[in-house]
Each structure stands twice: as C-alpha cells, then as structure tokens.
Model the fold of this input.
Amino acid sequence: MNKLVEITKPLKIGYKKTCKCPKNHINCLTAKEWMQSQVAVWELYYEKRDIRDKNIHPAVFPIALPAKCIKLFTHEGELVLDPFVGSGSTLVAAQDLNRNAVGFDLKKDYIELTKSRLTQTRLGDAMQQIAIQDEAHNIPHYLEKETISLSVTSPPYANMLNRPKLNKSIRGNLRKNKHYLQVQQYSNDPRDLGTMEPIQYAKTLGGIYRGILPLMRPKAHCVINVTDLWWENKRIPVHVYVIQALEEIGFELRNIIIWDRRNLINQAGIFGWPSNYITLGTTFEYILDFWRPP
Ligand SMILES: C[S@@+](CC[C@H](N)C(=O)[O-])C[C@H]1O[C@@H](n2cnc3c(N)ncnc32)[C@H](O)[C@@H]1O
Done:
C-alpha cells in the first residue's frame, strides 16, 4: 500500500480518532467485549493469512495478537506503531481494523514482504499503513510528539535464534527436520537486536524506547511480546530485563499477560527427565503491557 506513499520526515499520517465513542473511553469496545478481554491468559490462533514458513520469516506472531491489542488500546483512526514489524502482521491487523499504522524493520526483504501483505487501498481511503526500512533508533525522525496511541511489537528475543537450532521441544526422529542445526537469525547487522547478548540487548532496547516515549500520547499503551531463554541449563529471564529497561526510561508496567501457546504445540519431546525439571519454554510467552504515565 505504501508503494504510493511518499516517505517524508515527519510522515504525513493521521492519528486522531474518527469514531464517535465517548471521550473517556480508551477503545471502541462494548462493556461485554471489555469483560471478555479481562482474562490475563490469551489463547490465540494463526489464520490462513499468517506466515508460518520459517524460511520467509523465522518468528511471526499471529495477526490475532496485534489485533487484540489494537482493539483494546485504540479507537478507529488512531495511530499504531510497530518498531520491529518483521513480516508486517501488525500493519495487516491495523488495516483490518481501520487504524493508521507505521512499522519499521532493518531488513529490506521484510519491508517488501510487509508491503505485499497489505491489500491495495482504494482511492479515498483515509487510513494508511506504512512500512519503512530503517533502524528503530531513527523512529523519532518520522513521527511527531504525542501522536501514537499504541506501540505493539515482538522484538527479537535477544540472540535466541543466533545459534544452531536443536529442536529440543520436538519429539524423537521429528527433531531432525529441515531446520535442525540451522541458524535462523534475521541478519548479521550489528544493529540487529537478534545478534545481542541479553544484557546488551536490554540496554539497546531501552535506548530505542527512550526515543519512542515522547512520541506517545500520555496513557498510550506500549505492548512488548517476549519470551525467556534457556542457555546452558540456565534460565535467562529476558522479560525481567525488558521490564527493568522500560521502567528505567519512564514507561510504567500495567499488565503481564500470558500468551498460552499450548494449542500450537504438537508432539513435544521430553526435557530433563528424570533428574532435572525444566518446563517446556514453548508453552507460553509474555505479553508485557506498559503505558506512558499520565
Ligand atoms: C520477532 S521479529 C518481528 C516479527 C513480527 N511480529 C511479525 O509478526 O512478523 C523482529 C524483527 O525485528 C527486526 N529488527 C531487529 N533489530 C532491529 C532494529 N535495531 N531496528 C529495526 N528492526 C530490527 C528483525 O529484522 C525482525 O524482523
């Protein structure tokens, strides 16, 4: 869709609500829909449009994840940011839900992929979804202060993909599938968060969000999907590092939501038996919800 969009700095993109919801409502949900969203464990499903081929992109979240956040934290017409847009799932969700959105990624191929997933807009369509190839530290050059109503993303989980894939969560012979011992990193670019050790990763992530904070409206939500790592029999609590990094620069943690992924696992292998109790890391991920304090 942004084949036709001129990328200016700052961008010319709408950010004001176009619906008629009352002023004190943070979203367009009815009371009944709000109640259904209060459960802190989310079960999400991939749909046909979701990309499940790891050769196209190694770590795609379902469109349903940003869609749920967009419904919870924005009104129609408002502006959504995804600083690590990958294959563009957040922009697809924003297009479905009539929101403006901007997504950034270091890698040209992913930006092209994102553009190809957005359906052509018709003349007169008010909302825009724009994918930009740039490093996330540069986001403040593109967006004006206090215009973003929601930032939602899944950044790389530190250097989790940057090692040969052992497929430990898969059972027996199936483990040696075509991805076995492959390194599925996004890029070798030293600015890529996926190349960084967890501590440096959290510091860099904090630096990126320091630039994003003033672009967000007061009380705008900032959602980050991450998971912890196991590395040489030690648990690396990436979600704790991310919380510390974001709180240090002025975001406030509001909710911790568990993405229950048990519906996505089949034929799991056995871990640690019989002497070392280790839970299957792939069974859940964190959805950390912060806001810019009022
Ligand atoms: C987990 S993926 C995002 C996937 C996305 N949620 C989706 O559904 O397709 C993280 C993305 O961050 C990008 N990335 C890593 N470091 C970056 C940086 N410093 N600036 C911008 N993008 C970066 C990677 O290229 C990768 O596509």
Remarks:
- The chain has a mean pLDDT of 91.
- The longest strand covers residues 216-226.
- The domain at 31-291 is CATH 3.40.50.150 (Rossmann fold).
- The first helix runs from residue 31 to 36.
